[in-house]
Specification:
heterodimer, A: alpha/beta, eight-stranded parallel β-barrel, 11 helices, B: alpha/beta, 10 strands
Chain lengths: 266, 351
């Protein structure tokens, strides 16, 4: 079984509080990720400003084999900025839990769904290929998530990210939920989990066991709060315990983790 | 759901094996670990003898880990401890070696509480399970330790294997796993969901065991067991690890000092509106505090929040200018922006 590794070291990983990668470091990490064989590199958020856009342009222009993806809110200006940076793959994210819709965005399910569909259409008008991110999915209504996936698929998205934003899944529940969603969801699923209870790698593996074929990871598990699922752990577990193919050259992982550690100043 | 957990601590044993410890240190670290939850301490015979020699007489919450040797069984009994763990290899399940059988008979005769720890793999054939069932009944064994020290299992298989194992074994089953692939806390929760209530753990995941604080909080918050968590858990774990010469990584789940640090604009905006948008439990639960970091990923809400904290109010238009300067400075210095630097940027932007 082939599992696609979607690395978000340069986007969600760098969002670890206090962490900054320089332009040279981001470019070197992107090249190393490509070299190691990841399916996709989530390179950053162009909407963050001019310096970040310069860095991301350099990554896009580096001619990598991996997909290079820009992270966006479902906001036209974000997407336009990504397009101007040269991205042809864009990730468009919306929150899907009622908690986030009510307290953070003060909006409704219907409104956020429409916002997503409009954003996908806008990105598609530039010829972009699209993945959709759903934030706080593990605390969202499952039927609404499936509704979002269906709408995103109709609008032209290629796959959808299920995010355990505050790391509140555990492996058995992950397995049970993902088994159901793999059957019901019209789009391929990508699992993206956080490590607040020390379960990020375990939940990622459980999702793969349930039939998910894409895993979002960061090198060394870096990320907000207690971090994300660690690329090297996920790859080792998938390979050693389950015999899955990941396309990752495991021999190069120590160099990659050292490169990221040096860039973090650790 | 019953929450009659016993966490079998490996931290103290590890500490005693690795370094010399005087009586007061031993008692302090033991007291601190015992304050976290219901704890039984696994100590090697050598460590047990050391602490006894140092005058630590109370062995009520200590289990002595010994080889399958009747002499060691008798020695531990004579020293006033009646709780032992005897380690045998997986091969011994099919045919119990004579010394092991003698040790088990000796423990039975002394009416000791015996755990049988089987090393060398956690896969059992039907024949092995029948033999084990017979051994448990024959020697009045209190518990069997299901050993995944080699980290061969994931949480789902741990759960499934332990369900079958417990159905076949007529006594308590303990879970003993190590963290070879980053799965051990998940495995421990899988064990709990299968019905296991005794788990080998260590503070901070020392020596590769499931981290006590992660299992405790996972059982409480994710599996909904009514467990008590001390509100100084983070500090307590840090002090214990300090005895071992180890520090807590800032992003260590549950107890790391930065796990409630927020920088990205979206997250800061979120936690200011409602903390559980981006926090699975409150910092106060474990005795930590929230920090707002100003840096490359900050948004306008972060700047406004930080300035409000400092009793500084500026025009929204100026906030955008400050934010751009903040991002530029953070990228330039490859580090977050300090309060002093932020103030300087505010003055620059406002003048």
């Amino acid at each position: 079984m082939r599992i696609a590794i979607v690395d978000t070291t340069l986007r969600d990983g760098e969002q670890a509080a206090g962490l900054v990668f320089s332009q040279a470091e981001k470019l070197a990490i992107a090249k190393a990720l490509d070299q190691v064989g990841v399916f996709a590199i989530e390179a950053g958020t162009p909407a963050m400003g001019a310096e970040e856009q310069t860095t991301l342009r350099a990554i896009v222009e580096a001619g990598l084999s991996a997909r290079v993806i820009a992270w966006n809110r479902a906001v036209r200006q974000d997407i336009l900025t990504s397009v101007h940076c040269g991205f042809s793959f864009v990730h468009i994210s919306i929150p899907v839990s009622d908690l986030h819709l009510q307290y953070k965005l003060k909006t409704t399910r219907e409104a956020v769904l429409q916002q997503l569909v409009d954003a996908i259409a806008f990105a598609r008008s530039f010829g972009c290929r699209i993945s959709v991110g759903t934030e706080d999915t593990s605390r969202a209504d499952e039927e609404f998530f499936l509704q979002v996936a269906a709408a995103a698929a109709r609008a032209g998205a290629e796959y959808i990210r299920y995010a355990d934003t505050v790391g509140c899944l555990e492996p058995l529940k992950t397995y049970e939920v993902m088994q159901r969603l793999v059957q019901k969801c019209v789009l391929p699923l990508e699992i993206h989990v956080h490590n607040d209870f020390g379960l990020a790698t375990a939940n990622t593996i459980a999702a793969i066991q349930a039939g998910v074929r894409m895993a979002s990871v960061t090198v060394g598990g870096i990320g907000e709060r207690a971090g994300n699922a660690a690329l090297e752990q996920v790859v080792e577990a998938l390979t050693e315990l389950h015999g899955h193919e990941t396309g990752i050259d495991r021999a190069q992982l120590p160099d990659l983790t050292q490169l990221v550690a040096r860039a973090r100043g650790t | 759901m019953k929450a009659d957990f016993t966490f079998i601590d490996q931290t103290l044993g590890y500490a005693l094996e690795k370094q010399s410890m005087d009586t007061s240190e031993f008692l302090d670290i033991k007291r601190k670990i015992a304050a976290i939850s219901h704890i039984l301490f696994d100590l090697s015979l050598k460590s047990f003898l050391t602490v006894l020699y140092d005058g630590v007489a109370d062995a009520t919450d200590i289990r002595v880990c010994i080889q399958p040797d009747a002499g060691q069984v008798e020695q531990v009994h004579q020293l006033g401890c009646d709780h032992i763990k005897i380690t045998i290899t997986h091969d011994a399940v099919k045919k119990m070696p004579v010394p092991a059988a003698a040790a088990l008979r000796q423990a039975q005769a002394r009416e000791m509480t015996v755990a049988l720890h089987i090393t060398g793999g956690c896969q059992y054939s039907a024949f092995e399970l029948r033999r084990l069932d017979r051994t448990v009944k024959k020697y009045d064994i209190h518990s069997i330790v299901f050993d995944d020290e080699r980290g061969e299992l994931d949480p789902i298989t741990t759960y499934q294997n332990l369900l079958e194992f417990q159905q076949a074994i007529p006594c308590l089953v303990e879970y003993y796993g190590k963290n070879r692939l980053g799965l051990v806390t998940g495995n421990a929760l899988g064990a709990i969901q299968s019905g296991v209530r005794c788990l080998a753990v260590s503070v901070g995941g020392v020596s590769g065991y499931p981290a006590l604080e992660e299992v405790l909080m996972g059982a409480l918050y994710l599996l909904k067991f009514p467990l008590a968590v001390p509100n100084n858990l983070a500090a307590c774990c840090e002090e214990i690890l300090h005895y071992l010469g180890q520090s807590v990584h800032t992003t260590k789940p549950i107890i790391g000092s930065s796990i409630f640090a927020h920088e990205s604009g979206i997250h800061v905006d979120g936690v200011n509106k409602k903390s559980d948008l981006y926090e699975p439990f409150t910092p106060e639960t474990v005795g930590l505090s929230r920090k707002i970091i100003i840096g490359k990923h900050s948004g306008k809400a972060s700047i406004e929040f930080k300035l409000k904290e400092m009793n500084i109010f500026i025009h929204p238009v100026v906030v955008q200018t400050v934010l751009e300067k903040v991002r530029s400075l953070a990228i330039g210095q490859k580090a977050p922006v300090s309060d002093v630097q932020l103030l300087e940027l505010v003055h620059e932007a406002a003048s």
